[in-house]
Amino acid sequence: MLLFRSEETVEAWCAERNLPVRPMITLDQLWALAQEWYSNRLTEESRRPGPDEMASIFARIGLADPFWDPNAP
Amino acid sequence: MDFLIDVKLAIYRTFAETTHAPTVADVAQQLGAHVDDVQQAFHDLHKKRLLVPEPGDPTRIRMAPPFSNVPTSFNVTVGGKRYHAPCVWDSIGIPAALHTDGMVRTRDGQSKESMTLVIRDGAPKPTPCVAHFAVPAGHWWDDIIYT
Questions:
Q1: Which of B5, B6, B74, B119 would be B91's cystine partner, CB 3.0–4.6 Å?
Q2: Each residue of B51-64: pLDDT tens digit?
Q3: Cβ–Cβ of B48/A37 closer than 8 Å?
Q4: Strand-by-strand arrangement of the B81-84 sheet
Q5: Which residues 34-73 on chain A approach chain B with CB closer than 8 angstroms?
Q6: Which alpha helices (H) appear in B32-107, and where do they start and end?
Q7: ipTM of the predicted structure?
Q8: Cβ of A2 and B127 within 8 Å?
């Protein structure tokens, strides 16, 4: 999971490796993911979200593409 | 408290305080526990996707997301301490986990141009950038070190 200055540098990175361009996410979406995953990581009750929770989190922050489906084969 | 929780907290708190992961022997000493029990806990935490052992050495930790125990291209400064993160998501996950301001220094994945992300007062400072995930969500843990 890498950071890029722009969509153009993502496209160049993918083209150089013959990889498909995947859905890109904004800094605000990335921050929302970081908070959802890690804000309680140093507490007793912390755990990684399960697949259904992940799907709910992704939908809530606008990541609806099938790429984000944790249950997809 | 549940022993697995004790081990999990020992790992994460050691990472937070020292910027490095403890070994099985370190945690056993810290908790006054037997190394075999701590080794089993490391295995169980890996199954729960809360840590990744060092390949070839299950007594050591490669990463306990959002922290990495090896240098990466995501350098995170929080409270005067310098951490490494496995990926861009985890890089801002460190200030999120520590509930404080932080700064990420990395490079554009393609151009290698230096980039900085600043987390201040509970939010990232607006910065022109996008994150890209090459691996679909359903396959992140097929090879989490690559992901």
A1: B74
A2: 999 999 999 999 99
A3: no
A4: B52-54, B57-64, B67-68, B81-84, B75-78, B102-107, B114-120, B123-124
A5: 34-35, 37-39, 41-42, 44, 46-48, 54, 58, 67-73
A6: 35-47, 88-98
A7: 0.92
A8: no
